[in-house]
Amino acid sequence: MPRSPCRFQQSESKLSPLFDGYLSIKRDLIMPENWAFHKDVIEELYLTRGYTLEEVRKIMRIKHGFVAASRTYKLKLDEWKIRKNRRKKVQLCKEPTKKTQSQPIYVSSKVSPLPLVLATEESSLPLDALSPSMTDSTMNDSLSPSPSHIYELPSRSEHTLPSTRQTALLCQTPSIATDWVTNDLFSQSLNLEAIIVNTSLMFFSFRTHTESLQLLAKSPVMTQWAVETLLRNWKPGGECMHYALRFLGDSACCRTLLSVNWTRWTDGDETLFDLIDEIREEQEVLNALTKAVLKADLKFQHPLQKLRPTWADMWRLALQQTEWSLAKNMVRLLVNQLVSLLARLERHRRLVYCVLMVIAESLLEKNKRILVSWRGDIDIFFETARSQYFEILKDCRVWGIVLNPSWYADMIVVNTIDRGTSCYFTSTPTNIQAQQ
Predict the structure, then answer these.
(1) φ, ψ for residue 33 (rounded to 5)?
(2) How many angstroms separate the CA atoms of 339 and 64, rounded?
(3) Rounded to whole angstroms, how far apart are CA atoms 96 and 105?
(4) What is any Pfam family matched here (predicted)?
(5) How far apart are CA 435 and CA 233, in angstroms?
C-alpha cells in the first residue's frame, strides 16, 4: 500500500527527535567498523535513492555483509553531515495543489516491495555450494539444464498496480500526466527523480505499446534508462527485441548495463539480468537477450558505477584475459560470488551460461585470426592459438554450451602421436572473411 502524507509526516516526526537526540553522544561510542570503505554506498542509498535508515541497514547487511546498529549509523551520518531535507518533502506532500500542471510533483523513490517470488530457493541451495573453491564439475553442475519451472516467473504485467496506486505515484490526474509526458518531456527543468520513479508507468500507461516504444526511443532524457524500461514492459512478438538490439547498439544507452536498477519493485530485480529472468519468452530468446547485453558491455566497457553487483568486477577481469585458462578462473570466482552473496544460483544459470559463451567466442575470434593467417612456417603464436582454440571448443562441448557452427567451419581435427589432438583450417572461414 502506498504511504499517505499523514503516515509520512508521522514517521518523520517520530524519527526526528530520535535522530536529534543522538547528536550529543560522544564520538568514541562508534563501533570500529570500516566505515570509510562503505561511505559512498551508504550516501548513495540514503540521499540519492531516498531509502530510510532501516532499509539502508538491511541492504548493507544483505548485499555487502556490513553490520552495524541503528545508533551507530545515526552517529556516522551526523559525523559525515549527511541529513535529509525533510521539511521540503513534507511541505510538498502537504500542498500538492500549488504545483503547476506542467511541473511534476515530487514523489519519493521508495516503493513498497512486493512479496519475493523465489524466497524458497535459498533454503534449497546445498551448503557445499558456498565453498570458495570451484572445480570444473561444480561449474558443469551450474550449467546443467535446469527445470523449466525455474524460469517460469510471473511477468511484470501480473504485478500491475491498481489505479489508486498509479494516482498516488503520479500525484496528478491521468489527463495532466499525459500532457506532461507528450509536451514537457524534453524540458531541462523537469524533476529527473520523478521521471526515474515513474519510468514504466509514464511511458506505457496512456498509449499503445508500439507508440510507447517509439516515444522511448526518441526521448533523450530517458536514454540511460531505456533498456531497463523496455525490459520492465516486455511483450513477446519480436518488436521489443528489435528495440532492445537498437538500444544495445547505442553507447549512450549502455552506460549502466551492469549497475543496480534505478527503480526497484521487488527485492529480486536488482539488475537487468534479473528483469530478463522474469520475462515470459522462449529460452532461446532470453539467452539471446542476455548475450546481447553482455556483448554490448564487452563492446563499450563504460566505467563501472558505484552501485553494482559484485560479480561485475570478475566479468570485466575475465574479458581482459588473453588465455582461456585464466578466463575460466575469473568465471569461477564470478560463480562463487553469485552463490555466496545472492544464494540464488538457480536464477543465474542463464547468466553464467551466457558469460562463458561470450568470453569463449571472444577468445575464439582472436585465435582464429592467427590460425587462418598461418602460412606453414614455424610459429610459436600459431601453436599456442591452435591448442587454445581446440581447448575452448572441447570445454564448451563438455559444459553443454552450444556455439555457432561457424566456429567449426573449414576446420580439420588431426590426432598425432607426438602432438596429440590439434586442429587446422583449410581456408579462411566465411565469418572471418566478412570481418576483413
Answers:
(1) -100, 165
(2) 14
(3) 7
(4) Clr5
(5) 35
Q: How many CB atoms lie within 10 A of CB 415?
A: 8
Stretch (H or E) spanning 217: helix 209-217
Residue 340: is it exposed, middle or buried by C-beta count within 10 angstroms (0-12/13-18/19+)? middle
Question: Between vectors from CA 266 to CA 265 and to CA 272, what angle results, nearest 5°?
Answer: 80
Largest alpha-carbon pair distance within the chain? 86
For 301: left if phi > 0, alpha if psi spans -120 to 50, otherwise beta; the answer is left
pTM: 0.54
Please say whether the beta carbons of 137 and 129 come within 8 A.
Answer: no
Query: Can you spell out the DSSP letters for 41-75?
Result: HHHIIIIIS---HHHHHHHHHHHH-----HHHHHH
CA angle (159 as vertex; 102, 297 as ends), nearest 5: 80
Tell me the per-residue pLDDT of 318-352, one tens digit each, with 9 for 90 and over: 999 999 999 999 998 888 877 654 445 556 788 99
User: How far apart are alpha carbons 185 and 96 in whole angstroms?
Assistant: 20
Check: CB of residue 330 under 8 Å from CB of residue 318. Answer: yes
| Rounded Cα–Cα distance for residues 322 and 176 (Å) | 56
Query: All 3 cell numbers of residue 424?
Result: 587446422
